[in-house]
Amino acid sequence: MTPDDALALARLRDDVARGRVAEIRRERGHLTQREVARAVGTTPAAVGGWESGRRMPRGTAALRYAQLLAELERQYADRHALAEATCIEELPAWAQKLIRDIRAEAAEHRTRTKELAEALAEAEAGLDRADVAELGLDATNLLDAGLGGGLGAT
Fold first, then answer.
1. Tens digit of pLDDT for each residue in 126-146?
2. How far is CA 39 from CA 44, 54, 63, in A?
3. CATH number for the domain whose boundaries are 3-90
């Protein structure tokens, strides 16, 4: 079993436990329970039991079902991305520019947040109890308050 298969099976178990998710994926793919059953090698009643959460698929049928649902999700994501791109292209130029600017700003914020988190982790790792004492802070109180996550013993 490949890592992708293992991931698809784990996701399938989670989907069945949450109910209707597998059914929604099937419906997005415009497939009937009969078509899914034929592709997986089982009966429409079994597929209905899986979709309702009454039964958990097993064996090779579970793997085929998980792979089918994963493929349906990929196809849906591809169609959704294409539809979004098509819709954006239909907007006026000023709206397209605004969307590009907002996306660029969001990417900058993500990058800056990551840089700040890394800098904070480095600063915390470099502090020890002596540094905190030198700053006139009570290291025990910092540790008790959970603010000294990177403080090491001296």
1. 766 556 556 655 545 555 555
2. 11, 21, 12
3. 1.10.260
HEC readout, 25-82? HHHHCCCCHHHHHHHHCCCHHHHHHHHHCCCCCCHHHHHHHHHHHHHHHHHHHHHHHH
Q: How is the chain split among helix, strand and coil, in percent rounded to 5?
A: 75, 0, 20
- The amino acid at residue 56 is M
Percent of the chain whose pLDDT exceeds 90: 10
Residues with Cβ within 8 Å of residue 29, at least 6 apart in sequence: 72, 75, 76
Residues 154 and 127 sit within 8 Å (Cβ to Cβ): no
Between 32 and 9, the higher pLDDT residue: 32
Please give the Cα distance from 89 to 153 (Å, whole number): 58
The pLDDT assigned to 35 comes to 92
Cross-strand bridge partners of residue 128? 152
The residues spanned by each domain of the chain are 3-90, 94-145
Is 148 in contact with 139 (CB distance < 8 Å)? yes
